[in-house]
Amino acid sequence: MQAIADLVEHYGWKEVTSIFVDDDYGRSGIIFLGDALAKKRSKISFKAAFIPSAPSSAIRDLLVQVNLMESRVYVVHVNPDSGLTVFSVAKELGMLNNGSVWIATDWLMAVLDSLKMSDPVQKISHKGLLHFVITLQTQILKIILSRWSKLKASSSLNSYGLYAYDSVCSTGVKGFCIDVFEAAVKLLQYEVNHIYLLYGDGSKTPNFSDLVEMVPENKYDAVVGDITIVTNRTKIVDFIQTFIGSGLVVVSPVKGINSSAWSFLKPFSVQMWCVTGAFFLLVGAAVWILEHRINPEFCGPPSQYL
């Protein structure tokens, strides 16, 4: 998103329209983009969001609304499964003509990687999208691609794969959980010699339940990571106290309370007090009608009942 903000600043655009998928991935990216643009004295003038797996009709209705906005610089931050649909509908609506700028985020590279054809650029161009790809040929990149090819992976290594590879292999084992573990080890009064062993083959997401079961099997001494604490796992291993909060909070306005002699009336509304008073009079009248003929306490003038 910082690169997009730099691009907006370079061309002197002051306002952009963001088109994004309404989930954690989309919202967080647009928030970061808004902060980056604010530092460049630009802003997001209109935010157009659609739900994940939205049909083409919903995307069309959204783009019709977007087309009414003044800004003609669009940033598309969506999932790969809906990205091409956005551009296809935009082309049908004539929104890809001269005078408009469309900027796609990293999802486009994932789409290019997944297209099973000799010329994926041609398929993208059919959607009306003109794009360019900058390829950096460095010695480190060549080494990474060579290692990736040895895994016999079915797809090429896109930008997401490079990020993951760089965070695990190139820079060593790092992360928030690792930092917490290292800080805890330093607080011990004795030395704990340990080495990190990466779990998984690097091509698919490992099964964390299987990983936890390897601890009582003495294949590993411990597991460091964001492992979810569930009942069946607590029966075979011990977890430390939770140190990562859920991040959920409740925000409510602060209102000053003025104390008065009529404060006891606030728990109920005016309508509720009226209904309560009506029932009080109705019950009192019914008791008097039934009792005043036979009960001496209900005889005499009405002032006697008070």
From TrEMBL:
Its main location: membrane. It is found in: Membrane. One of its GO terms (cellular component) is membrane. Keywords: Glycoprotein, Ion channel, Ion transport, Ligand-gated ion channel, Membrane, Receptor, Transmembrane, Transmembrane helix, Transport. GO terms for molecular function: ligand-gated monoatomic ion channel activity. InterPro entries: ANF_lig-bd_rcpt, Glu/Gly-bd, Ionotropic_Glu_rcpt, Peripla_BP_I. Residues 172-251 form the Ionotropic glutamate receptor L-glutamate and glycine-binding domain. Residues 1-169 form the Receptor ligand binding region domain. It comes from the Eukaryota. It is a multi-pass membrane protein. The chain crosses the membrane at residues 270-290. PANTHER family: IONOTROPIC GLUTAMATE RECEPTOR. This is Ionotropic glutamate receptor. It comes from Kingdonia uniflora.
